[in-house]
From TrEMBL:
Domain F5/8 type C: from-to ranges: 1-112
Cited Pfam families: F5_F8_type_C, Laminin_G_2
Key words of the record: EGF-like domain, Membrane, Signal, Transmembrane, Transmembrane helix
Native source species: Drymodes brunneopygia
Superkingdom of origin organism: Eukaryota
Lineage of source species: Eukaryota, Metazoa, Chordata, Craniata, Vertebrata
SMART domains assigned: FA58C (SM00231), LamG (SM00282)
Protein name: CNTP4 protein
Length: 285
């Protein structure tokens, strides 16, 4: 009715769903009760989705977050999200409401259009970026991207050197592994191979963010909000590697003997290498 949303039955199986029309970056939400009534929600969950079929619950401090709602019908309770949501669909799911009334809600959602570059991979393709040798920085390398997939295995990133050295980021059984292989074990006997695994159930068709930062021999590997810091000993340097990055698979099958060679099947968003927007570059070239 005109006073806001109030379902016919007040129970834990009700929700209010919004289609924002396009992917949007949501930064805050606000709620009121039903206008001029004794109907208001005291606690609710927030869920979001890109498709309207596959839903994720808003989490904060490592757990599903229950929002504190209203204590009367007309006061506005505004909540700035600790981290923004990027989604097309939102669901407000009431958990508790005024015991002397029913579920009643008026809501406001705050945010802006989310601009992104997305590329899809079919499991048989990869995207090659050839670096400009003039712009190589021996001291610093930063790669960031988001991915989503329903496949539990696939190569996201590969870079290889002349002597068998390679860096590979690969999804294996829903977990993400960063493998740094220094092929020459005689000169790097103490640290011939580094294999760091982060995350789980990353094949849930939701976006996951990845960041690899390499400063001198210090490497930071971040998946979503979890970071692993480690030190690559020996003579390891990105200068030993080819001036070519392969996203979504390995460009020449069989180049490295130890890999699964399963190309990535899914989507990448906003691939950046040292500030260069790789997807935009691919589209324009």
């Amino acid at each position: 009715g005109a006073g806001g949303w109030s379902p016919l039955v007040s129970n834990k199986y009700q929700w209010l769903q919004i289609d924002l029309g396009e992917r949007t970056e949501i930064t805050a939400v606000a709620t009121q009760g039903g206008y001029g009534s004794s109907d208001w929600v005291t606690s609710y969950l927030l869920m979001f989705s890109d498709s309207g079929r596959n839903w994720k619950q808003y989490r904060q401090e490592e757990s599903i977050w229950a929002f504190s709602g209203n204590t009367n019908a007309d006061s506005v309770v505004y909540y700035k999200l600790q981290h923004s949501i990027k989604a097309r669909f939102l669901r407000f799911v009431p958990l508790d409401w005024n015991p002397n009334g029913r579920i009643g809600m008026r809501i406001e959602v705050y945010g802006c259009t989310y601009r992104s570059e997305v590329v899809g991979f079919d499991g048989k393709s990869c995207l090659i970026y050839t670096l400009n040798k003039k712009h190589i920085n021996a001291l610093k390398d930063v790669i960031s991207l988001k991915f989503k997939t329903m496949q539990s295995d696939g190569i996201l990133l590969h870079r290889e050197g002349q002597n068998g050295d390679h860096i590979t980021m690969e999804l294996t059984k829903g977990k993400l592994s960063l493998l740094i292989n220094l092929g020459d074990t005689k000169s790097h006997p103490s640290n011939a191979q580094i294999n760091i695994t982060l995350g789980s159930l990353l094949d849930d068709q939701h976006w996951h963010s990845v960041l690899i930062e390499h400063f001198n021999n210090q490497v930071n590997f971040t998946v979503d909000k979890h970071t692993h810091h480690f030190h690559a000993k020996g003579e390891f340097s990105y200068l030993d590697l080819d001036y070519e990055l392969s996203f979504g698979g390995i460009a020449v099958p069989g180049k490295s003997g130890t890999l699964s060679r399963r190309n990535f099947h899914g989507c990448f968003e906003n691939i950046y290498y040292n500030g260069v927007n790789i997807i935009d570059l691919a589209r324009r070239h």
